[in-house]
Each structure stands twice: as C-alpha cells, then as structure tokens.
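Before the break, one more example. Copy the sequence into your notebook; we will annotate it together after we see the structure.
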Amino acid sequence: MANVDEFVASLPRSERVITQALRSIIMDSDPRIAEKLSYGVPYFSIRRRICFVWPASAPYGPKDGKVSLGMCFGYLISDHDKMLQMDGRMQVSVARFGSLSEIDERKINEIMQEAILVDNMKLKRK
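Here is what the structure looks like once it is written out:
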C-alpha cells in the first residue's frame, strides 16, 4: 500500500467505517498530527508515535474482528473511564471497537489530548 487512504479504502466496510471515524477524531485532535503507514497500518505522530489504528483484517490484527486504537505510551495515560486496556503489555494500551456506536468521541479526544501532552513531555526528557 502506498498511503493511508488506499489502506483504508481496501478494508472491509465494517472496519473501514470504524477506521475512518477513529482517523478523523485523531487528525482533528491537533493540526500537527501526521499519519503514515507503519507495520502495514496507520500510525499517527507529532514528535514521536502517539497512536495507531489496527483493523482486524490487517496483518497481525486483533482476532476478535474489531478495530484497535492503540496508544503508544498508553501506560502514561490516566484513562479515568478505563477505555484502554494493557492486556499484559508494558507500554502500549488498546481500545477495541466493533461498531461506530461504541466510539465515544469525547473520551477519545480526552485520551488524545493527554497523549499529545505525553508526546511533549517525552521530547523534553531527552
């Protein structure tokens, strides 16, 4: 795949609508966010990778048929609503969505704003 648009267009409809919705929320959260394919899925970054969207039909996708929103430094995000799960991982946390109705834009925006703060903090620690 050459770009994120082609990747999204190639997804099964059920995954495509969820991926498009998540992508829109992510891109609207900060004008500095850039996206590119990495590991065959869309990754989003400002200074470092902030998050990714990993549909089930992508290689190594979740076996539950859902679309995952992964936060690269999820262990540093407070996530008061417990949307994100560590699932035994040390750094990356994930929320999974099986339908558009499961997406809470307000909660994802809150997580994204905190993830952007973490991105700024991580840069300053170098």
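Helices lie at 4-9, 13-28, 105-125. The chain has a mean pLDDT of 92. Try to locate both features in your own notes.
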